[in-house]
Amino acid sequence: MAEIIYPRMAVIGCGLIGSSIIHAARAAGVVGQVTVADASAQSRERIEALGFADLVTADPAEAARDADLVVFAVPVMAMGEAARAAASAMKPGATITDVGSVKAVVSEALSEAVPDSVFVVPGHPIAGTEQSGPDAGFAELFQNRWIILTPQAREDDPYLEAVQRLADFWTALGSNVERMDEKHHDLVLAVTSHLPHLIAYNIVGTAADLEGVTQGEVMKYSAGGFRDFTRIAASDPTMWRDVFLANREAVLEILGRFTEDLQALSRAIRWAEGDKLFELFSRTREIRRGIIAAGQESAEPNFGRDHRSADPDTKPQ
Amino acid sequence: MAEIIYPRMAVIGCGLIGSSIIHAARAAGVVGQVTVADASAQSRERIEALGFADLVTADPAEAARDADLVVFAVPVMAMGEAARAAASAMKPGATITDVGSVKAVVSEALSEAVPDSVFVVPGHPIAGTEQSGPDAGFAELFQNRWIILTPQAREDDPYLEAVQRLADFWTALGSNVERMDEKHHDLVLAVTSHLPHLIAYNIVGTAADLEGVTQGEVMKYSAGGFRDFTRIAASDPTMWRDVFLANREAVLEILGRFTEDLQALSRAIRWAEGDKLFELFSRTREIRRGIIAAGQESAEPNFGRDHRSADPDTKPQ
Ligand SMILES: NC(=O)c1ccc[n+]([C@@H]2O[C@H](COP(=O)([O-])OP(=O)(O)OC[C@H]3O[C@@H](n4cnc5c(N)ncnc54)[C@H](OP(=O)(O)O)[C@@H]3O)[C@@H](O)[C@H]2O)c1
Ligand SMILES: NC(=O)c1ccc[n+]([C@@H]2O[C@H](COP(=O)([O-])OP(=O)(O)OC[C@H]3O[C@@H](n4cnc5c(N)ncnc54)[C@H](OP(=O)(O)O)[C@@H]3O)[C@@H](O)[C@H]2O)c1
């Protein structure tokens, strides 16, 4: 058992990510008491029943009182309001973090909401499943996954110590810690996560609206590739609405590039330019090899996923 | 052990699909002798070493001689040439089939190439992995997967019997048999397979060409959703070039719809229309539930895939 890093941890919003943090932190032995605030009465009931928290409340301030670490794990656009609700109870010297999938907007919202006496260190674990809610959480979710911290531009020792303590916390949970500028985070994630989700939502929506092909046929023959998109496109609607609203500029920029490239590809098909198609398809194959080499994937047909293994930022059923 | 359905089976093009058919047919006990023709010297060497064929040759005619079933499992645009090369040796009354991912073009090419005395029954198994070549094949690939047969428009008894015999063969291999008009097949698969592949190739290509984000970052944070696209975009370049050339019209039609929808989605993001996003994201979630209910997927995070389980039409590494 490791040493306790945070004697008291508060989790505000205890769904998939919030509850997974609690399970993982308890398994690692790095927290003492754990308090939870959740807006949903149904979730609170489940959290009580699951018994992994020492205090369950609807009031963020009650949960945050005396906490050494406060983790905001609500949808991105709800972060500001949740932080304002908890602010008055925050202990001077406490660390305030979050797990939101967009960082610039959240970082600003948190910083504005909380007193100067606490340390704001935003973060984003690149791990998730398609499930949501407190029943979906599990301790292994963050194992071997990246956690990106986007600390503020300050260099004073107490702040740097707070950042280091949070990095140690995530390391204890099994994650690999990376520090990054928040704007850069939002651009990188627009590419690796937000655009893929947008495209998946779109293609599944398009397929649903076709006249010539029935929904039954789409489902029946989904093993042809479509199936993978439906998994991504089953991600939590609230979470993803918020992501696109909060990371609008970067998403639209990357989407513009994607659309340009798609037009070129469409032209190549129209004019039967087989060589162009072959060249692109060969190039993309190499990228896959790179990802397998980077350890983010295995070459096995089961996709390197075992039951409950940590999965993409987002995989609802 | 079942009864032998085809005393002699020839497989022309013995990669992933061709070799899987041989493994599955032998396991089911529905074939006697098996002959193989493959254009690649390297593949022929591997096939000899693997020892699953009674005859291995470069010459399609030699393999097809005296065969009761001839299965063409080469890339879609190579079907016509392969069939012409084998035609002279075909036994009257033999069944000629294929496994190509596009049906109208292949059906026409096969029919033109072969003598009137044989029965042409095109087919497409909706099963595959991202691997290719004869080493990638395995007997369970077609278990519980659909095989779509697109018989010709003829109603004479000998032909209908040949179709039924081929359906029985695939049933013995573990597949569920469906009959469909070839044009309709090409439209359905444009939606469930060809467009998803095109989109995946495109997004991976776009990501590779960005200035602000390095390839290393794309790989590192690919678990955010991008990873799933890279798997699809690692599919065999030759096979997929041929699919897009052979199914141009249907692919461009569906791509047009996809692009329209994407523009509307882009506008909704630009104008921060959260309700529109939420509505679409909720709708697509239902489709996922339909696919799980249709038995084409499981709700488990491992995606219902166990080691070597049959996978989407296409999943190269
Ligand atoms: N899912 C992923 O794969 C993933 C990965 C990395 C990061 N993230 C980020 O993690 C955060 C949480 O995602 P999640 O997947 O854990 O979602 P989730 O399972 O839906 O959990 C969110 C929880 O927060 C509650 N909540 C919503 N607004 C609240 C508020 N104002 N105050 C208190 N509680 C509130 C929700 O209650 P209700 O049910 O009443 O709404 C729900 O119980 C999001 O910011 C997301 O961007 C998610
Ligand atoms: N992969 C899938 O997921 C999947 C699923 C359903 C249907 N299909 C269809 O199945 C067919 C084969 O795909 P596959 O995945 O099995 O490909 P594969 O593993 O690459 O095998 C194709 C084999 O055919 C050989 N070949 C190519 N042209 C030939 C010719 N003219 N004569 C004789 N042999 C030739 C290739 O040799 P070289 O190596 O020298 O080219 C290779 O050994 C394609 O029509 C594809 O559309 C594929």
List the helices and strands and how they pair.
The structure is a homodimer of 317-residue chains.
Chain A: E1 6-12, H1 16-28, E2 31-37, H2 41-50, E3 55-57, H3 60-64, E4 69-72, H4 79-87, E5 95-98, H5 104-113, E6 119-120, E7 123-125, E8 146-149, H6 157-172, E9 176-179, H7 182-208, H8 215-220, H9 226-232, H10 237-246, H11 248-270, H12 274-293
Parallel strand pairs in A: 1-2, 1-4, 2-3, 4-5, 5-6, 8-9
Antiparallel strand pairs in A: 7-8
The structure holds NADP nicotinamide-adenine-dinucleotide phosphate (2 copies).
Residues 12-18, 37-40, 43, 73-76, 78, 81-82, 99-101, 124-125, 128, 132-133, 236, 239, 313-314 of chain A line the site of one NADP nicotinamide-adenine-dinucleotide phosphate.
Catalytic activity (chains A, B): prephenate + NAD(+) = 3-(4-hydroxyphenyl)pyruvate + CO2 + NADH
Domain Prephenate/arogenate dehydrogenase (chains A, B): 7-299
Pathway (chains A, B): Amino-acid biosynthesis; L-tyrosine biosynthesis; (4-hydroxyphenyl)pyruvate from prephenate (NAD(+) route): step 1/1
